[in-house]
Design goal:
The structure is a homodimer of 249-residue chains. By secondary structure, the first copy, chain A, is an alpha+beta fold. Chain A has helices at residues 3-17, 62-74, 152-166, 183-194, 200-210, 235-244; strands spanning 18-31, 36-43, 49-50, 53-57, 81-87, 111-118, 132-139, 213-219, 229-233. Chains A, B: Residues 19-164 form the Nudix hydrolase domain.
């Protein structure tokens, strides 16, 4: 079958399996120690990049649909997924499938619920689907030059914006950093998310005050400078503060 | 017509007007200077309290549907509505309409998108609809004793939780307080949202540091104590910081 036949065939199955008009898009962030990147699929039929996404089965809720979609694309389980926004504009997707019959499932109006996840990119072997020719990490600062479908660039920006807000009151880093890390490495992550450099002294003071760090009796060896101390997350406190929020008031 | 006929009649119109499976619920918070309250409707047909809610017209997006629903219940326009979560569990609403025919619109599965709004309760004259016998403010600490429909108590809790998180990085108070207010009055609002008392010195220092307050050359007269200074919001800064967030890092 060529991809057009596959899509038409999928459409028939979709009417039986899924709740109409609802879709899920996932923004999966990874961090290479320096920059944030996001997982995208390149579709064969129009050479555009898509977020990993799909539909909600009649027996699922949105979160289980998002977890299933994430697992299909990354083989990852037990990843924390955070719903961040709903995208409900008219004519979001209709144009993309303009060459297809009007009763095509994909051509209907879809209200898409966005979830983001933070993953360790080393744990992920991205897997495309039958409609995509590749599934790849794209650095955030390369998105500008890519042909990205529909409103998916806007969805990524909204996810990043939510992440920026959430690091004001939630700990972050557990899935994005290796188990042991230095304070400069943690600062790099915050700077990559915020898109700006931070004052080192302020950052160290504030991050230590939150109470999620455990200093190890080890140093990162091998650099030209004084070997920096290694830290790990105090998991008990990390999850407690993830639940209750960082106290600002 | 009795309410059962009205519901069945509405169901027919709904199939023509709205996108199936998608609904909107709004959590409208008010503040009386001491406690937070929320706007609820009491339904004639089962005597349960409901959040103001409705469906999305085929030509609307979710935000315009939420604004329309809010206007219908409160006559308020130009209110800032914030989407905060989606509720997609199975069997959310089916039980509520168990005595109705199976093809009833309201009995279908609905994925509901929650919006919250903060309003000045003095500006609002709550208006019920043809199915409700009243539309009233209920104080948060009275919710426990009320018969609240479906998952609407969970929706209110989630909205309140989001509000608690958002006051870590967004200014708040513009629609909840009178134009001129004292610092003790502003602190009361934060305490009502957080559900705990705050240290006065810390609160004053932090709230002044954000840069959204303008001290007026007036005092609140009439109390037994020294007349406290009146403040107002510096609207330019308020909206700038609402847009960019309070810098924590």
């Amino acid at each position: 079958m060529d991809f057009k036949e596959i899509i038409i065939n999928n459409s028939k199955k979709a009417y039986e399996m899924y709740v109409p008009h609802i879709s899920v898009d996932t923004v999966i962030f990874g961090f290479n120690g320096d920059q944030l990147k996001v997982l995208l699929l390149k579709m064969k039929f129009n050479q555009q990049w898509f977020l990993p996404g799909g539909y909600m089965k009649k027996e699922e809720n949105l979160e289980s649909a998002a977890i299933r979609i994430l697992r299909e694309r990354t083989q990852l389980d037990k990843i924390f997924l955070q719903e961040f926004a709903v995208f409900s504009e008219l004519n979001r997707s209709e144009e993309t499938f303009k060459d297809f019959p009007d009763d095509l499932w994909h051509k209907k109006r879809f209200i898409s619920v966005g979830y983001y996840a933070l993953v360790n990119h080393k744990d992920v072997s991205p897997i495309g689907d039958e409609l995509s020719e590749s599934c790849d990490w794209i650095y955030l600062d390369e998105l500008e030059n890519q042909n990205i479908t529909m409103d998916h660039k806007k969805i990524i920006e909204k996810a990043l914006n939510t992440l920026r807000e959430q690091i004001s009151y939630k700990p972050i880093g557990l899935n994005l950093l290796p188990e042991k890390f230095t304070l400069p490495e943690l600062q790099k992550l915050y700077e990559a998310i915020l898109g700006r450099t931070l004052n080192r002294g302020n950052f160290y003071r504030k991050i230590k005050n939150i109470g999620i760090l455990k200093k190890l009796d080890e140093q990162r060896k091998g650099g030209a400078h004084k070997a920096p101390d290694l830290y790990t997350f105090d998991l008990e406190n990390y999850f407690k503060i993830l639940e209750n929020g960082i106290t600002n008031w």
